[in-house]
Amino acid sequence: MRPSIVSVCIPVYNGAAFIAAAVESVLAQTFHDFELIILDNASTDQTADILSRFKDERLRIVRHPSNIGATANFNAALSEARGVWVKILCADDLLYPDCLEKQMAAAGSPDSRPVLLCAARDIINARGRRLMSRRFPGAAGWMPGCDAIRRSIRAGTNLLGEPAAVLMHRETALNVGGFDPAWRFCTDLDLWVRILQYGDLYVDPAVLCAFRVSTQSWSIALVRSQAKEFCRWMTQRQNDGLLRTVWIDRQAGRMKAYLLMIQRRIFYRVVNRGRAK
Questions:
Q1: Which residue of 3, 53, 80, 190 has the fewest CB atoms within a 10 Å radius of its CB?
Q2: pTM summary value
Q3: Is residue 257 part of a domain?
Q4: Parent domain of 55
């Protein structure tokens, strides 16, 4: 069979609470030329049983005999993918039905040299209720990769979004080495920056997916350390020559990173209080 043009990959470990919703959101896409690969990182809950209920020829399940760690599982997804384009969907997040259709329409544009596409996303809670939306501020359409990187640095955060919001060129992602296990909070932004050394970014201001804030979300566990890691990551990548920013960009990024840390603590505290009621 001809390989699908898009690979949607769901790395999962003990994701029984949300994995069915994530899979269903992919199978409901209006764009049909995709493969869905689920990488089960030796789950010990009901994840495997839930996955066994899905019968779709586009679905392939890879189960690791032992847990290889989250970053290695993300990189396994890139290796297993056969599409020209790859989207990594965390097991508690969702794609909206027109996500792949809209991003693939832009990816096929003859007007630019795309290596990465991103979209706005809803932030939802454990029950699926929308809390807010996030987007790349003041941007729509094609943007040179260097401009996208500089704007993220000045903002002190990942403006492109979580993996669900991003569609990446698979060969480029593999050529730059995939996800770097040296980073936790910055692991996705770090890969986006390395990919954007080789082409343009397309920003879709439409909300095309949902990022779930729950007790299983990495952001909850990392909120106290993410500002420090962002600053450390920024310094290292500047020294590596990957960031072509000036001093004022990095200073603005440091200030924004710590301001965002305070805002996130308040936000997650409110979310957790609402879940407890």
A1: 53
A2: 0.91
A3: yes
A4: 6-276
Helices (DSSP H) in 119-210: which residue ranges? Answer: 145-155, 170-175, 187-195
Cα 74 to Cα 80: distance, rounded to the nearest angstrom: 10
Enumerate residues 6+ apart whose C-beta is below 8 A from 269: none
- Cα(164)–Cα(121) distance, rounded to whole angstroms? 8
Q: Supply the CATH number for residue 213's domain.
A: 3.90.550.10
Q: CA-to-CA distance for 260 and 220, rounded, in angstroms?
A: 14
Q: What pLDDT digit, counting tens, does each position of 198-246 carry?
A: 999 999 999 999 999 865 444 455 566 888 899 999 999 999 998 988 8
273 falls in which pLDDT band (50, 70, 90)?
low
3-class DSSP state of 156 = coil
In the chain, how many domains are there?
Answer: 1
Side chain identity, residue 222: L
